[in-house]
């Protein structure tokens, strides 16, 4: 600190601007933690991020592909997220999942990652779109969640929903959600199961 305020080192700015985007869910969550830490030092950072997004599209993709040696099936999974700001700005995320999961679990992982981003940016109003009727109906309570593996995801989503005052979910067709699906599928195909 100096008399005229905080000096910003050019090397720090360069490091931030050249920082590679997160490629995995673990890296994304690490980035979110850093953003939360920085928020304490930058006045009104959350106020500046608030208009970031009102719309979120999400999708997950998973498939079993045989490994070359030995012929044991390898599950690959990826998620895609698209945030659209009120001004029309678009942020796209394509992340691979490090653990094997079903397609429904990948859908939940995508929803959770998107909600965590929204919570960290203190977004107060969010309209969420996906093409999975099952996930939307389970979250809204129209369908009961019976599968033990999905119950944990469902509970996390409900807890995250409680942190955003105005959240709406809507089912859209695969064609409307196609770009998000493409991001998830791309990351699934590029995922390294090892």
What features would you describe in this structure?
The protein is an alpha/beta fold and 194 residues long. The chain has a single domain (20-39, 51-190), classed as Nucleotidyltransferase, domain 5 (2-Layer Sandwich), CATH 3.30.420. Helix content is 42%, strand content 22%. The chain has seven helices and five strands; from the N terminus they run αααβββαβααβα. The chain has a five-stranded mixed β-sheet, sandwiched between helices. The termini are far apart. Residues 49-53 have low confidence and may be disordered. Residues 75-185 form the RNase H type-1 domain. One of its GO terms (molecular function) is RNA-DNA hybrid ribonuclease activity. InterPro entries: DNA/RNA_pol_sf (IPR043502), RNaseH-like_sf (IPR012337), RNaseH_domain (IPR002156), RNaseH_sf (IPR036397).
* Quantity of strands, as a count: 5
**Largest beta-sheet details:** 5 strands, mixed
Radius of gyration: 18 Å
* Overall SS class: alpha/beta
- In DSSP terms (H or I, runs of 4 or more residues), the helix count works out at 7
Average pLDDT confidence is 78
Name of the CATH class: Alpha Beta
Oligomeric state as shown: single chain
In the CATH hierarchy, what is the architecture at level 2? Answer: 2-Layer Sandwich
Alpha carbon gap, first and last residue:
46 Å
Overall 3D geometry? globular
Please list the strands of the largest sheet in the order they lie side by side: 3-2-1-4-5
Task: Note the run of SSEs as H and E.
Answer: HHHEEEHEHHEH
Poorly predicted parts = 49-53
Number of domains: 1
Q: Name the helicity range.
A: 40-55%
CATH-wise, what's the superfamily?
Ribonuclease H-like superfamily/Ribonuclease H
CATH topology: the name is: Nucleotidyltransferase, domain 5
